[in-house]
Amino acid sequence: xxxxxxxxxxxxxxxxxxxxxxxxxxxxxxxxxxxxxxxxxxxxxxxxxxxxxxxxxxxxxxxxxxxxxxxxxxxxxxxxxxxxxxxxxxxxxxxxxxxxxxxxxxxxxxxxxxxxxxxxxxxxxxxxxxxxxxxxxxxxxxxxxxxxxxxxxxxxxxxxxxxxxxxxxxxxxxxxxxxxxxxxxxxxxxxxxxxxxxxxxxxxxxxxxxxxxxxxxxxxxxxxxxxxxxxxxxxxxxxxxxxxxxxxxxxxx
Length: 253
Known about the structure:
- The protein is α+β, with helices and mostly antiparallel strands.
- The longest helix has 37 residues, at 143-179.
- The protein is 20% helix and 27% strand.
């Protein structure tokens, strides 16, 4: 019989949940020259006062992948006249760096610090639908922003390492269970539970380590040695000047 019916679509595959880890409202983006020496990139060669873009950086985690996304603020319209005029803007994706650790790839493969500043980095930007990539320079006006970015990535690295250790332990436990001796059904002794050893040790009597009889201990007083004063920390030379207030990207440091 050819009765009609309602076609039920297959359930949609849920997309992985994205978790926002960090938003930095000001990031300077630079076009960088080719690497000249093996020692690394230098921010003072980028023309820090004239960034190619001043935008927003967001760090978003999706399972075991961290995405560093650069956005540019684009004007979408204007309303009002004179002093009451307002401008509407939106964030448009400029570039993205997917960070997937493993296979010999560590954090510096994706985000490499420069050698002359703690606030500037080289970011590996990859096209969303291909493996094509390019390198851009990024920097921040304040050291706190750079520190927040590094701390976020270190937390992500720790999360990935813990996940992989847990998976490895599960695989080892499954392999041990599959290759272990027979249980009660096969008449074998079976694999020994390590917890049984812990219980057996806890039931053993503790050795008496107390001091017996009367014991005299003489303590000779001596002159206390005064701590030597620490040498003053010299200010680091050769660092780039701090950025100017307002305007461009400023210097390193």
